[in-house]
Design brief:
CATH topology of the largest domain in chain C: D-Maltodextrin-Binding Protein, domain 2
Number of strands of chain A: 0
Order of helices and strands of chain A: HHHHHHHHHHH
Oligomer: heterotrimer
Number of domains of chain C: 2
Structural class of chain A: mainly alpha
Distance between the termini of chain C: 50 Å
Chains: A mainly alpha (303), B mainly alpha (306), C alpha+beta (506)
Radius of gyration of chain A: 22 Å
Largest sheet of chain A: none
Shape of chain C: globular
CATH superfamily of chain A: MetI-like
Strand order of the largest sheet of chain C: 8-9-10-1-11-19-12
Distance between the termini of chain A: 34 Å
Mean pLDDT of chain A: 80
């Protein structure tokens, strides 16, 4: 089984590169946890401020340049990765988990519960999430937990909608009928038949959302209600450095590239996942016939 | 008759969502803090703050304020703006047209571009055009929009002198804001058009048309696009909210006097009435857009009409 | 009906968008100025705030007197002469033959109406709250050309404050703020496109020299980078309120505003009620290093709460030297005697208030942590920050990063607002309160040179003994001027850009 996925990944060059890039980023971030302790990344140094990158004035630490307070851009990027990735990944998967739960309930039970869930979901989805996020973040402190909650609530409707649609399809399928004949209860069905069936789609959608969430986080930082000091995130770095776009370009370009890389990689991988986890489409990746993937993402890519 | 049924059902469904939104916004806006603190001079005495609150009705208990608010809404009266000497609804309507034009232009540009690009990519799947195109649109949608906006101004205005930097004005002033706004929409719309078109192109009746000798272009435009219309239109409806998100940033950077910027200034300035009016006007517009989309389904797809 | 108006507006926006582009940089005698925000309210009585004063004061609306920043002199404007007839009364002789831009004549009655309006509580005029600091002024018209102003407390500097009493026409709404300010200045408001721009044209009834610039448009661009780009492409002739990172742009001009960046310590609560801890903070800050890093050297070390330009500035105060070892020692001593120096505290920073405030707060927190305190940064927006400024909530004690602006140009503004122990903003430690109160009373009762000397003494005491604040820097302000115009900024240029001083280069 694993060998099969490996072969499929290898055949699809785009997905392979994306996977390697993502793994590299995660590895470096993890290494940062161990190696960059304490205030290595926040140590200010007034003697070495605004050094351009690709010079080794103070050694390896300045290879990506330094900022206004002389802090190493490289170290700050690695520390910021923790926050950005944590926020994006956790919000995506939390939204997927809750969305799946609510969607399954709605699709399985139908009736009144279904209507309420769908109407609330409509209400949230039809309103620009950034408007509400800005409003909320002026009330509650813009701490990481609150930002993640807001991001989850904003993306929930998408997951609910898809989960519900898939649940409806699955419920009518043969293997569920078979299980019912064998006397399975509602709960059992939901947990052991339906959830695994919709898992691939949920994962695919979650992967897509990760990129989107990183961009929303940077928008919140631009508006001043994102993660606050002393936290660092790629979004904060891009936003803070924007006055220096012409002079100290490295302050915005590098964090921006990081966001874009993670976002694009997740997008490509998510498309690959959609094919790899779908037995009907899997042949495209399995054989040497180079048939490119077709078909709508059954999910509508996040906005 | 069928139309009224559709609209009526949709209205009923939307009403519940609207009520929820209206109530939520009222309480949220009031939780942002006391406007008296903000409008009165820094060293205003507590009595002065109390007097200000009394004059504007902020001293009443929440449910009483909500009653006034709900009663007002029914008469389309959202109260006076605290920052401007005008009714809140007027302030919102002043800003709304700019955003409407921005969103509509963005959606049209995104549609045209995605339809053309997506169809071309679907015609030759796996080719260089297809792969490069996919990478480009995905990359465009993966960059922070304020960064792209500032870079665009540097490149097109300051270096190349072909476009004005910012502000409302003639068509040249709208090119960059619309361009930046449409990046996200183009990213997803192109992939949907491409996928949808590819599915249809592989279907039997297109094969039949090809067998009859119908040329590619004709096939594309007369047969497949019409069928691809439904998922595309669904996506367009959902994207309106997303594009509105983008207007908050684009309007701030390009100095366009629209709703996105108005909302942020009003939240910062604790101008409750304008915040509430903005939210409700935007929500109503989106519901209207959704109804139009539902109606257009029956126009496009004969199967729905029956 | 609102719906009809709405659709008309949509269609007109479309027409503008699809129509021919507006003529850029029209006639040679028009200029465009890019500012960050729209004035709210756009009223002559709101010239206590910068957004309104930079457009209105001395351009659209003249005041009773005027101020020459280069010589620190108060000169005649709408009043030709004045004298103090009692500690709380001044009489002004008004100019005749002046008209408002709507044609109505300026006289004592009009001046009295306008001043009464300024002090009407319902309007919340920033002139009354910022410049007069709660002092009430009752005007009285005597005949056509004499105006008597009675103040609620003795005010020896009323003519200086009167430079902000911009006079509006009697036709102005008296019960609420106006959106159409009408004054006696060389220009009048031609158009206000909400959210976009304000346009001024020459006042036809102005009897002074005809202005050479025939149209001035102020455009609103919140993003500093975009204001700079507009000057670089020629779309604007001036860009105001720029952060220090643009100081090296071609055409950038700098000046020293009356603003001091400082860290106010909560000297009424532990641990800052212990003088050693406060002294430790003063020695822990590397002022020259911060100035070089954050302001590119475009700032001077601040030694007191006012800047050089404000009378009462004491040139003999020496700033504390950067000595982290001494700071550590002092704080360790305090800790040993039971002062809770480890208490987690925050530097409360208001977003957008201080230039590069975010980085400054982070650097300060690090420097204070290094000497034994436990400090982190909390950035917030206006309302909660103002609350901490005034009411010292017990759960939010710590340090407040402030940018104190003395817009009046007189030390009494700073002293009243920040040092008077009776005011809630003051954090003068308990043991120094009576000394400070005495010094304030002496200074405010003084006259002329003696008054200035007494204020100098007060500032010295605050800096070295009471040490409620850690003064950090006085940062220069930056503006960008394009090739079409020339302008020489002075220390008041943040609040006041008289268009008479902006010259077109021919």
């Amino acid at each position: 089984m694993n060998g099969r996925y490996g072969r499929m990944l290898y055949r699809s060059k785009g997905a392979l590169i994306s996977a390697i890039l993502l793994a590299a980023i995660l590895l470096v971030t993890g290494a940062g946890f161990i190696l960059l302790r304490g205030d290595v990344a926040t140590a200010t140094s007034f003697s070495g401020t605004m050094i351009p990158p690709f010079s080794l004035v103070h050694g390896f630490r300045d290879v990506l340049g330094t900022d206004l307070l002389g802090r190493s851009e490289l170290f700050r990027l690695i520390v910021a990765a923790r926050t950005s990735l944590a926020v994006a990944f956790s919000a995506a998967f939390l939204a997927a988990a809750f969305g799946a739960a609510l969607g399954i309930v709605a699709g399985f039970r139908k009736g009144f519960l279904d209507t309420i869930i769908m109407r609330l979901s409509d209400a949230i989805q039809s309103f620009p999430s950034l408007f509400l996020a800005v409003l909320f973040l002026y009330i509650v402190e813009p701490r990481i937990e609150n930002i993640v909650i807001l991001l989850v609530v904003g993306r929930l409707p998408m997951f609910i909608r898809v989960a519900r649609a898939e649940t409806v399809t699955v419920v009518n399928s043969l293997f569920v009928d078979a299980a019912r004949c064998l006397g399975a209860s509602g709960w059992w069905l939901c947990l052991y038949e339906i959830a695994p069936a919709i898992l691939p789609t949920m994962l695919t959608l979650a992967a897509l959302e990760i990129g989107v969430l990183m961009l929303v986080e940077s928008a919140l930082s631009f508006l001043g209600v994102g993660i606050q000091a002393p936290g660092v995130s790629w979004g904060i770095m891009v936003s803070e450095g924007r006055d220096w776009i012409q002079s100290a370009w490295w302050l915005t370009v590098f964090p921006g590239l990081c966001i874009a890389t993670v976002s694009i990689s997740c997008n490509v991988l998510s498309n690959w996942l959609r094919l790899a986890t779908n037995p009907v489409e899997r042949w495209r990746l399995d054989t040497d016939v180079h048939a490119p993937d077709v078909g709508l993402p059954a999910v509508l890519p996040g906005i | 008759m069928a139309i009224f049924a559709i609209v009526g059902r949709r209205l009923g469904q939307s009403l519940l969502s609207l009520l929820f939104l209206v109530t939520a916004v009222f309480f949220i806006a009031r939780m942002t803090g006391d406007p008296g603190q903000l409008y009165l001079p820094l060293d205003a005495t507590p009595e002065a703050v109390a007097q200000f609150d009394k004059a504007h009705g902020f001293d009443q208990p929440a449910y009483r304020q909500f009653e006034r608010y709900a009663a007002g809404i029914v008469h389309l009266d959202f109260g006076q703006s605290l920052r401007r000497e005008a009714p809140a609804l007027d302030v919102v309507f002043e800003a709304f047209p700019t955003t409407v034009v921005l969103v509509v232009a963005t959606e049209l540009v995104a549609l045209v571009f995605s339809v053309v690009a997506g169809s071309l990519m679907a015609l030759r799947p796996g080719s260089l055009l297809d792969r490069a195109g996919t990478v480009l649109v995905v990359a465009g949608a993966s960059l922070p929009d304020f960064w792209v906006a500032l870079m665009a101004i540097l490149v097109f205005s300051v270096s190349l002198h072909v476009l004005p930097t910012s502000g409302p004005g003639g068509i040249l002033h709208w090119i960059m804001p619309v361009g930046v706004l449409s990046l996200r929409a183009v990213g997803s719309l192109t992939q949907v058009v491409r996928g949808s078109t590819m599915e249809i192109l592989a279907s039997p009746y297109i094969e039949a048309a090809r067998g009859r000798g119908v040329g590619n272009i004709r096939i594309l435009f007369f047969h497949s696009l019409r069928n691809a219309a439904i998922p595309v239109i669904t996506l367009v409806g959902i994207q309106v909210a997303g594009i509105l998100n983008g207007t908050v940033i684009v309007e701030t950077i390009f100095g366009l006097p629209g709703i996105g910027r108005l909302l942020v200034t009003s939240i910062l300035g604790r101008d409750f009435a304008v915040v509430e009016a903005t939210v409700i006007v935007v929500a109503l517009t989106i519901f209207a857009v959704n109804i139009v989309i539902d109606l257009s389904y029956s126009a496009i797809d004969p199967r729905v009409r029956a | 009906m609102p719906i009809v108006r709405f659709w008309v507006a949509v269609i007109s926006v479309c027409c503008v968008a699809l129509g021919p582009p507006l003529a850029q940089a029209a006639a040679n005698s028009t200029i465009t100025i890019a500012v960050p925000e729209e004035p709210a309210p756009f009223d002559t009585c709101a010239v206590g705030t910068i957004a309104a004063s930079r457009i209105l004061l001395n351009n659209v609306a003249d005041a009773i007197t005027a101020y020459i920043p280069e010589t620190n002199a108060v000169v005649p404007s709408l009043a030709t002469s004045w004298k103090q007839t009692s500690p709380a009364t001044w009489e002004f002789n008004l100019r005749s033959g002046v008209r408002f831009s709507d044609g109505t004549p300026f006289n004592a009655a009009a001046a009295a109406t306008s001043i009464k309006r300024t002090f009407n509580h319902a309007l919340n005029c920033s002139v009354a709250s910022q410049i007069f600091a709660g002092e009430q002024v009752v005007p009285e018209a005597i005949g056509n050309t004499r105006l008597r102003l009675t103040t609620s407390r003795p005010d020896p500097i009323l003519p200086l404050r009167a430079t902000f009493l911009a006079i509006s026409a009697p036709s102005t709404e008296s019960d609420r703020n106006t959106e159409h300010p009408i004054g006696t200045g060389a220009y009048k408001v031609d158009n206000w496109a909400h959210g976009t721009s304000i346009t001024l044209v020459p006042n036809p009834f102005f009897n002074g020299p005809k202005p050479k610039i025939t149209q001035v448009t102020y455009v609103f661009r919140p993003e500093a980078r975009v204001r700079v780009d507009m000057v670089n492409t020629g779309e604007a002739d001036m860009a105001l309120s720029l952060p220090p990172e643009f100081a090296s742009q071609k055409g950038a001009l700098q000046f020293d505003p009356p603003e001091v960046i400082l860290l106010r310590m909560d000297a009424l609560t532990a641990p800052f009620n212990d003088k050693r801890v406060r002294q430790g903070v003063l020695s822990a800050i590397d002022r020259p290093g911060l100035i070089k890093a954050l302001y590119g050297g475009n700032a001077s070390v601040a030694t007191q709460a006012i800047t050089r330009n404000v009378p009462g500035f004491n040139p003999h105060i020496v700033p504390p030297r950067y000595d982290p070892a001494l700071a550590k020692k002092l704080i360790a001593e305090a800790k040993a005697s039971g002062v809770p120096v480890d208490k987690p505290m925050k530097i409360y920073n208001r977003a957008g208030l201080v230039l590069n405030g975010q980085q400054l707060a982070e650097a300060l927190a690090e420097e204070l942590d290094a000497v034994g305190l436990n400090v982190s940064v909390d950035t917030m927006d206006v309302a909660p920050w103002v609350e901490i400024l005034f009411s010292h909530p017990a759960d939010r004690s710590g340090l407040l990063l402030e940018d104190h602006a003395n817009n009046l140009g007189d030390p009494s503004l700073t002293v009243d607002a920040r040092f008077d122990p009776r005011r809630t903003r003051s954090q003068v430690p308990k043991e120094d309160q009576s000394t400070v109160a005495n010094l304030i009373r002496l200074a405010e009762n003084g006259r002329g040179e003696q008054r200035t000397a007494l204020f100098q003494k007060l500032f010295a005491f605050m800096a070295t003994d009471a040490t409620q604040d850690a003064y950090i820097a006085a940062a220069r302000s930056t503006m960008l001027v394009g090739p079409r115009v020339s302008y020489k900024p002075n220390w008041r240029s943040n609040q006041l850009i008289p268009l008479a001083n902006v010259h077109l280069r021919q």
